[in-house]
Design brief:
By secondary structure, this protein is of the alpha+beta class. The protein contains 4 helices and 8 strands. It has helices at 9-12, 15-22, 105-114, 116-145; strands at 26-30, 35-37, 45-51, 54-58, 66-71, 76-77, 91-94, 98-104. The strands form 2 sheets. It has a 4-stranded antiparallel sheet with strand order 1-8-3-6. It starts with 8 loop residues before the first helix and ends in an 11-residue tail after the last helix.
Length: 156
């Protein structure tokens, strides 16, 4: 059995920090096909998937958006809320009915400032998620646009 993915909240953050963060959550539901956010929009919230699947995509001029990752239960939807200028760098769609915890980003940033241990835990988790997403985007774009065999599909 493999270790839990550090991109999932249960493996990426200590239990007490998860509990404090989840105190700020509200429940949100999305029907299949709902667009959670668009690349370039204002990133004022984020979600943790409870059930269902969300896809992340990147705009490709003259083509449909390229899906770079599928997110399932326990995974973070949206990282741009943590970094100025708080603008979405990707887009996201609900591929199935999705139940999620939704967070008000400014409130979470205030809590992170007030509680340095929590701030460090959230920051480290988001950094792990971003490192994974950068790698996933690279592999997916190589699969889509590079000569055959350039990507590393087995690692996705």
């Amino acid at each position: 059995m493999s270790a839990p993915s550090p991109t999932r909240i249960a493996a990426g953050m200590p239990a007490d920090c998860r509990t404090r963060l989840l105190e700020l959550a509200r429940e949100a539901d999305f029907d299949t096909g709902v667009r959670l956010f668009n690349e370039g929009g204002h990133a004022d919230r984020f979600w943790i998937v409870r059930s269902g699947t969300v896809t992340l995509d990147v705009h490709v001029p003259g083509r449909r958006p390229a899906v770079i990752e599928r997110l399932d239960a326990g995974e973070l939807v949206g990282c741009s809320w943590l970094f100025k200028p708080y603008v979405w760098r990707l887009g996201a769609d609900a591929m199935t009915p999705v139940r999620a915890y939704e967070f008000d980003a400014p409130a979470v940033r205030l809590l992170m400032d007030a509680d340095p241990r929590l701030g460090s835990a959230v920051g480290a988790w988001v950094a792990d998620v971003l490192a994974h997403r950068l790698w996933a985007a690279r592999v997916r774009l190589l699969d889509l646009y590079a000569p055959y065999g350039s990507g590393d599909r087995d690692r996705l």
